[in-house]
Amino acid sequence: MLCGIDEAGRGPLAGPLVVAGVVLKKEVKELNDSKKLTEKKREELFDKIKQSSDYHIVFKSAKDIDTKGISTCIKESIQEIMQNVNASEYLMDGNTSFNIPTLQHKIKADASVVEVSAASILAKVSRDRYMCEIAKAFPNYNFEKHKGYGTKAHIEKIKEFGRSNEHRVSFRLKDLGEEKIGVQKSLF
């Protein structure tokens, strides 16, 4: 039994990292890498995946990312999934196993392995929903539009209003004249 694992939110300037693990108990049609699906299609598949699987979704806040580093947050999320989803194999999308001996990895697994595709969709939809929800509390940033990614419009809002407590301060912006603040903790 395979547990597919994928993340959403590794690179944005604001919002959480979300990592999902999925073991499918029955077939779900039309699965693919979440980035290759429309928002409407991801939303349609979200509940189908949840109803057809054992799954676990982990959120790591901007503060967690600033404190521990993105790689440590991903590793901790994977370990939490492995503790909460019973499987004989665990496969992460990407090019590293984060020094977890029992974790396999495969580049573009989110487009070729249905369990990883399902995890990709759960992570992406969960994160997007979170960003739309917090947009109400932070109307100046238009999180519902860019979901915290470093779009030109988002950077302009940061210039105008500064960072909120949902922003990652360790992610420095050349457009704001910021220098790097040390090397982020890495597991590779």
UniProtKB/TrEMBL annotation:
Species name:
Malaciobacter halophilus
Assigned keywords, A-Z? Cytoplasm, Endonuclease, Hydrolase, Manganese, Metal-binding, Nuclease
Name the enzyme group at the top EC level: hydrolase
Please state the gene responsible for encoding this protein. rnhB
Return the protein name: Ribonuclease HII
Q: Which positions does UniProt annotate for a divalent metal cation binding? A: D6, E7, D93
GO CC list: cytoplasm; ribonuclease H2 complex
- Entries under Gene3D superfamilies matching the protein: Ribonuclease H-like superfamily/Ribonuclease H
Write down the NCBIfam families for this protein, in alphabetical order. PRK00015.1-3
Catalytic activity, EC: 3.1.26.4
